[in-house]
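tool=predict chain=A
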Amino acid sequence: MSLPCVRDFSEEKFLQTILYPAKTAVNQFVAMQNFMGSFAKYTNELMVPYLISTHYFNAAEQKNLSSETPMDSMASYMELLEFNADISARSLNASLKALGDYTRRELPGAVEAVVHTLFNTEGKEKIDGFLNRQAKTMDVINNIYPNAINDIEPEYGFHFERGISPKIAETDRFIVYQVAPVAKGAVTDNSFKPILIIPPYVLGANILGFLPNEQKSYAHCFANQGIPTYIRISKDISQTPALQTMTGENDTLDTKYFCEIIKARHGKSVTLNGYCQGGFNAVCNVLSGELDGVVDALLTCVAPIDGTRSKGLADFLKKLPRRFNNLMYGSKMLPNGNKVADGKLMGWVYKLRSIENESPLVAFLRDMKMLEPKKNGDPVKINKTAAALNYWLSNERTDLPLGITNMSFASFNTPITEDGTLPITLFGRKLNFKRIKEKKMPWLICYGEQDDLVEKACALAPLDYIDVETSSFPKGHVAIATSWSSPKSECALHTRFGEKKYRGPVRFQMDLDEQLNSREG
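tool=predict ok
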């Protein structure tokens, strides 16, 4: 006769009883590995630039120590210690707050899972389910998410190497391509007024060609409307000595050369359109007078026209001891002896400025929340926009010519004068906003209401000196190039939007062409 306990205890229950705890333990071991690996990545994003900065700091201080008195050096170091302590305290407070928020969010679920396990509550999440859900999150953040970011590369950006967008002109420093439309049925109208886009140096050009096939690309917004759209692309600075030693004058003359070619192709003067730092350089180019006759309209998007009005970066630089507020602490020597500004270090400075949001633990827990599986256990779908944004943040930092960096550095340390004169000169000439007014040049300034990189006041500085049309976009610094570049968005760039009927940059260009044609007619 068989024993009841043996008859009732099925093989399935036996395996579940014996193996399930072991499986959960293995899952947690793998989860811990994923946690350590992924958190190390977040930490490295902050610490690697820090280690690079210490190398530059030591090299710079070897020169400074011989020219400064010991007392002055000691005073500067004490100020620097106070500055570093402030950043560390802000980082620690933000990390503790983020950890507290995470604990308050997850602890009730953990307690419930323990209770349901002890009382074997049917249909409720038990401790093994809770732990396995955490393990899935760790797998997503350490493996699936990075793979999704890498996999988006073929769809992200311009990919000029494919030959779809033809090369039009070239100098020792830049190449200009014509952006081909990608929308179904869109064809370039060569009689239309052309536009030349100047991307930012640090952030790279590909953010302006974000996801063309998803109808999320700033440059393609123009091209898809039939507008002859050109974009200036910097050559590889590590392989281009002419770019490494470039000055603001070189930047202006190269832009003039490109605009002359574009005007000859279409018979109409060019609209110069700069994004972020490219916008500041475009304004300087126009104010120099060198573009007279080839550029008759100006368009800037989230451009830092007066950096001293930036509550974030300008205030950050003010707190930095004066001795260390110098580009020599962020410059690196190339093998050929030329010096350039380290692009990774520039990005690191922005992280330090916003350390409350960018400290490793804060960023890690924020992404954990975004990527945690749904309550039914299904994994979160990683959309292409999130993947492309992270690909851009991880791969698009480039070094900068010191001559161009000095222009931006001056803008963030010296305000525009009362009469509208910028703190830099080109070709030995002062740059004053009055030239825009004298030339009666249309200028549209687009800015982001929640932009914490180039704040509203920084972008709208010209309004204190001349009348300029503005367009306010919701969200932050890259939303114009991502969210609002979709033709179906509420702030589509080819439309008027909002209660005040702001003009998007593409609508601005379309209206300019219509006005030009009506005058000619």
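Residues 11-67 form the longest helix (57 residues). The chain has two domains: 26-155+357-395, 160-342+399-520.
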